[in-house]
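Request from the bench team (R.T.):
"We need a structural guess for the complex before ordering more fe (ii) ion. Sequence and SMILES attached. Just send the tokens back."

Command: build protein-fe (ii) ion structure.
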Amino acid sequence: MKGFCFVHSSAPDLGHGLPANPAAAFPSQKSYNPPFVRILLLSDIHSNLEALDSCLAAAPAHDLVVNLGDTVGYGGNPNEVIAKAQTLGRVFVRGNHDKAVCGLMNLEDFNPVAGLATLWTRGQLTPKNLEWLRALPQGPIQVDELPGIQFVHGSPLDEDEYMVSARDAIEPLITIPVPVTFFGHTHLQGGFVLTGEISEAYHPGYRTVGQPESSDWPLRKDRRYLINPGSVGQPRDGDWRAAFAMFDSEAWIVTYYRVPYNLRVAQEKILAANLPQRLATRLATGR
Ligand SMILES: [Fe+2]
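Reply to R.T.: structure attached below.
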């Protein structure tokens, strides 16, 4: 286990006030003052405030925060999580739950539990936050100062596609000429690498099930990668700890993190909201 540094983040002030037209806050091609070396990657927060707070407390110092989508849905604090996400910066990609909650996507592809959570979340959100969700941009998103990197929710070919296996990853890896794509959606921390015409899955290794840990994946400049930081608020890879990642764009190293959080409080909020019990119990097993 690598030494774990509980240093509070130091993201630059990118200007947090939203303009009158929320869509103007999310240009498809972003340009900020460089350097953005250390990038904090958050995905699938899913209204879990306790998990988000633990990730932010554990994250090492960073220059930029990127949110890969599904900020809301499932958890008990949608307004609070949106408020916190807005303070972190302006690089966002919309997720399928973000779209469904604000009415940009119908619920026919959602299972009953996800559908109930979507309707509950819609009822909780302020009009301003619903409008903010509607204005989130579709991936892929690129930042001018980070050539060779892009951000998506599902796949670079389809924002709602799940890339679970190396087989799923082969088409986007071969057809999209971008060396590094960060994605979310599956709630599975890890990634895929293209070597020649072979797509291989990568899973970070950890030694405990309850301690804060990190795991480095040094990347090669002559490979293509799809990289998932994992889910902050509802992991599904059998590890209950909240997941996130850091990318060092100079050293070309991804560092994955898992951090414990106040699971009981997050579960109690779900139950108190009369959301399906399954949404609370699954958090304990990371499934
Ligand atoms: Fe999600």
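Two things stood out. The helical segments are 49-58, 78-87, 96-101, 112-124, 127-135, 166-175, 263-272, 277-285. The radius of gyration is 17 Å.
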